[in-house]
Design brief:
With about 375 residues, the chain is α/β, with parallel strands linked by helices. It is built from 15 helices and ten strands. The structure holds ligand F0G. Ligand F0G binds near residues 242 and 243.
């Protein structure tokens, strides 16, 4: 069946009417990729699946929320939308605003967003404002301006964003024919996405479309781990710039998702994230951005602590885990190049290539 986007696919669960003009780029319906090599490397009883959100139209999960937020902004007659962003929200807001024919302004922390994301916001024609501060400072400014002026706020504190993003949970359950995974692992930044997934799982379960609820595993970067530490982090740090957030707006909802589901929120170091990032690309062929890899880094950490040894799978003999790979690796080419081996440069001669490949070069050439 043709994919017409998440509002069309899950219309009964979305706040739209017959008159609503839907602004969509046919987002969602992303692949759930089994990760056999990764599962075997992490724990013999794990069955890991990767929800590859990088394959959304602007390359991240934000499109699920943005289709809903921009649709409602247009319905509510807003002509300008605004967001603070570590990059992906700005890319998505810019694209959906362009499609809707409305203005978009994005506030980003100066010098701290990945190049691909910046290029997206710029080419879609958003007003891009770099703030000499971090994401948290930018979000405070956006909240104030949207309160005082007729500007729609499209960060995940906008409830329509959550409504759209909960569709990720529906897709996972649908792909597993109504059987919930044992665990879901995901990065946590501003904490909108963990809020949205948990809402989606609960909604699907309540209407009988899912047999159970998964336990939610959230991971923050160690230098930006306010929820784990129990207090805001004034100067958050991490190379995974997407989750470089010191005071998450949906903090309470994230804690509720963790506690209601019997899950946990932990932190992973930049080195652990880097390792998982490289592993996903080299052993599974899946290129995600660094923040996304924190979900896999978290599983590696938990497995090393014996966390999964005592877990009983609900069905079958494997513990089924879905990792949400929130953004595409091409968003952040600088980090990919910095983490990988440099290409070699040779003369344009066959024997030079053969030498690099380790094939013996015949003596007469
Ligand atoms: N992964 C990626 C790739 C992200 O861009 C974000 C958030 C997250 C994970 C965390 O999701 O904030 O809902 O907990 N990016 C936001 C942005 C903050 O501005 O693009 P969250």
């Amino acid at each position: 069946m043709r994919n017409n986007g998440i509002i069309a696919r899950y219309r009964a669960h979305m706040p739209v009417s017959d008159d609503t003009r839907i602004i969509s780029l046919n987002e969602g319906s992303t692949p759930l990729v089994p990760a056999l090599a990764l599962s075997a490397a992490i724990h013999p009883r794990l069955e890991i699946h990767l929800k590859y959100e990088g394959l959304n139209p602007t390359g991240s999960f934000k499109d699920r929320g943005m289709t809903m937020a921009i649709t409602k902004a247009v319905e509510d007659k807003f002509e300008v939308v605004m967001c603070a962003s570590t990059g992906n929200t700005s890319a998505s807001a810019a694209a959906y605003s362009a499609r809707a024919g409305i203005k978009c302004a994005v506030l980003i922390p100066e010098g701290k967003i990945a190049f691909g994301k910046l290029s997206q916001a710029m080419i879609h024609g958003a007003t891009v404002i770099q703030v000499k501060g971090n994401f948290d400072d930018a979000l405070n400014l956006v909240r104030k301006i949207c309160h005082d002026y007729p500007v729609a706020l499209v960060n995940s504190v906008n409830p329509y964003r959550i409504e759209g993003q909960k569709s990720g949970a529906f897709e996972i359950i649908d792909d597993f024919d109504g059987v919930a995974p044992d665990f879901q692992a995901m990065p946590v930044g501003n904490a909108g996405n963990i809020t949205a997934y948990w809402k989606g799982y609960k909604e699907y379960h309540a209407c009988g479309k899912s047999d159970a609820l998964p336990r939610m595993l959230g991971f923050q970067a160690a230098g930006s781990a306010p929820i784990v530490l129990g207090h805001p982090v004034e100067k958050p740090q991490t190379f995974a710039t997407a989750i470089r957030i010191g005071n998450p707006a949906s903090w309470k909802q994230a804690v509720a998702a963790r506690d209601e589901s019997g899950g946990l929120i932990d932190m992973v170091t930049d080195d652990e994230i880097r390792e998982a990032y490289k592993m996903l690309a080299s052993s599974e062929g899946v290129f995600c951005e660094p923040a996304s890899a924190s979900s896999v880094a978290g599983l590696i950490k938990l497995s090393g602590q014996g966390f999964f040894d005592a877990v009983q799978p609900r069905t079958g003999d494997k513990i089924r885990v879905v990792c949400i790979l929130t953004g595409h690796g091409l968003k952040d080419p600088d980090n990919a190049i910095a983490c990988a081996e440099e290409p070699v440069t040779v003369e344009a001669r066959e024997e030079a290539i053969l030498e690099v490949l380790g094939y013996s070069v015949p003596a007469f050439v």
